[in-house]
Amino acid sequence: MKLDVLNMEGKKVSEAELPAAIFEAPINLDLMHQAYLRQMANARLGTHDTKVRGEVAGGGAKPWKQKGTGRARQGSRRAAQWVGGGRIHTPHPRSYSQRMPKKMRQAALRSALSAKAADAGIVLVDELKFDEIKTRAMARTISSLVGNSTALIVMPEKDQAYEAVVRTADNLTDTKVLLAGYLNIRDLLGFDKLILPVKTLDRLIARLG
User: Fold this and answer.
1) What is the rounded CA–CA span in Å between residue 136 and residue 129?
2) Which of 5, 87, 150, 160 is found 20 to 30 A from 69 (Cα to Cα)?
3) What are the tens digits of pLDDT across the range 157-188?
4) Does position 99 have pLDDT exceeding 90, yes or no?
5) What domains can you pick out in the chain, each with its CATH number?
């Protein structure tokens, strides 16, 4: 698949071939869904906690004697039926993490990238380079490249150009910047357009090719 390579003003400067192994892979919706659920589950902290009857205060003495009061027998004010008592069948700290083989994670990313390519959701640029850190400069570039669509920018490496792009895009709510090594299924599915500098293709080939 060939795509036009644009400059920061949105004008065509050349063409580039997208690697078929990554951008023309079979689209597996079930695999993408599984990878998405895994990522969302792994982001959960699992720190929720409630106190059982052995952890709440009080309850040292029997509320009243066993017989003769006409009331139901009670052994402790820490029991679950008492106000301020312990809780049963309620959340406690746990891990929600799910495992997924590396090859399946890579296949899910290839599937998502292929879906983006098939939907004309990928924009290639020759480079992203800003001489000054101005949000309006990034907003102008995004408008030239993708119009009003939300955009995920994937940079090849962490260098001065990356730092400048991150800082200029920081105040744009519909734009996010990632390194190629951190590309993930949630962000791929969460933005309308994927903006790739040409050098990023080599990083994706090394990771997914």
Assistant:
1) 14
2) 87
3) 999 999 999 999 999 999 999 999 999 999 99
4) yes
5) 2-29+100-208 (3.40.1370.10)
